[in-house]
Amino acid sequence: MDGLRGYSKKVRLDTGILLNISTVSTYVFCPFKVFLQNYLGLREEVGLIPETGKVVHEYYTGLSVLLYEHLKAGKSLLKTLVDEYTETFLEKTPRDVRERVEEDLFRIAEFRLKQPFMETPVRREVYLSSRKLSLRGSIDLLEGIYPVEVKYRERIIEGDLIQLALYTLLLEETYRRDIDYGAIDLLKACKRVKVKVDSKLRVRALHAREKVLEATLAGQVEKLKEKRRRGCK
C-alpha cells in the first residue's frame, strides 16, 4: 500500500477540523451542494424518495445485527425471526413510505439471509473520529473490522468508493490494523460488491479529503465540469 495506511504519517493531516466523511462523498459528486450546505446554511427538503432510502437503510442494518445475534439459530427459527422483524418494522413505518418499500423489504431480507458476514461481531452506525486524519463519520455496518456501506440503489458511484476508503483509513488509525477490503451493499440490486481498498483508491480518497479541506478553509468550490453540473441536484 506504499505506506498509505490510516496509522501512517504519510496520511496524517491535522488541521483542527473534523470533516464528515459523508460530506467528502457528496463533494466528489457535487462540490456546489457542499458549498450551499456548509456556507449558506441551505438544506434540501427531505422528500419521499430520500425518506424511503433512509427507512430501507435502517431496516437493513437492524436486520444485519439481528441475524448476527442469532448466528447459531436454525433456518426455520431464523426465517420466523426475520418475518416478525419485518412485520413489526413495517407497522412502525409511515403508510406512504410503507407502500413503496414493503415488497423490497422482503426481497432484501432474503438477500441478507443468504449473504454471509465478512467477519464478526456485527455492529451498525459505528462512529469514529481522528484529529490526525481530520476525519469523522458513522460506518453503516462494521462486520468484524471490515466496513460495509449500504446504498439503496443499483450501482456504485465514485463517492461510494471514496467514502469506503476513508472509513478504512479511519478504522486502520483507530485499531492499528491493516484492512485491505470493504464492501458496498446495493439494496435495489440485492448485491454485495467486495471492494479492494488499494493504493490507487486510497490516493483518490486522500485527494478528495484535501480538496474538501481546501474548500472548507477558503469557502470556495471548484468549477464544475458540464457533465457533473448536469447531475448536481
Could you explain the architecture of this structure?
The chain has 233 residues and is of the alpha/beta class. The protein folds into two domains: 9-40 and 120-218, Alpha-Beta Complex (Lambda Exonuclease, Chain A); 48-114, no CATH class. The protein contains eight helices and six strands. The protein has helices at residues 21-29, 31-39, 48-69, 75-91, 95-114, 158-175, 199-218, 226-230, and strands spanning 19-20, 122-130, 135-143, 146-151, 181-186, 191-196. Strands 1, 2, 3, 4, 5 and 6 form a six-stranded mixed β-sheet that branches. Strand 2 and strand 3 form a beta hairpin. The radius of gyration is 19 Å and the shape is globular.
Layout of secondary structure:
Elements: E1 19-20, H1 21-29, H2 31-39, H3 48-69, H4 75-91, H5 95-114, E2 122-130, E3 135-143, E4 146-151, H6 158-175, E5 181-186, E6 191-196, H7 199-218, H8 226-230
Parallel strand pairs: 1-3, 4-5
Antiparallel strand pairs: 2-3, 3-4, 5-6
Helix pairs in contact: 1-2, 1-6, 3-4, 3-5, 4-5, 6-7
Helix content: 40-55%
**Large-scale geometry:** globular
Q: What order do the helices and strands follow? A: EHHHHHEEEHEEHH
Structural class: alpha/beta
- The CATH architecture name of the largest domain reads Alpha-Beta Complex
User: Briefly, what CATH class of the largest domain?
Assistant: Alpha Beta
- Mean pLDDT, rounded to whole units? 89
Beta-strand share of residues: 15-25%
Tell me the distance between the termini: 35 Å
Estimate nothing, just give the exact number of structural domains.
2
Unreliably modeled segments: none
- Tell me the CATH topology of the largest domain: Lambda Exonuclease, Chain A
Over the alpha carbons, how many angstroms does the gyration radius reach?
19 Å
**Could you tell me the number of beta strands?**
6
Instruction: Give the helix tally.
Output: 8
The largest pleated sheet is described as: 6 strands, mixed
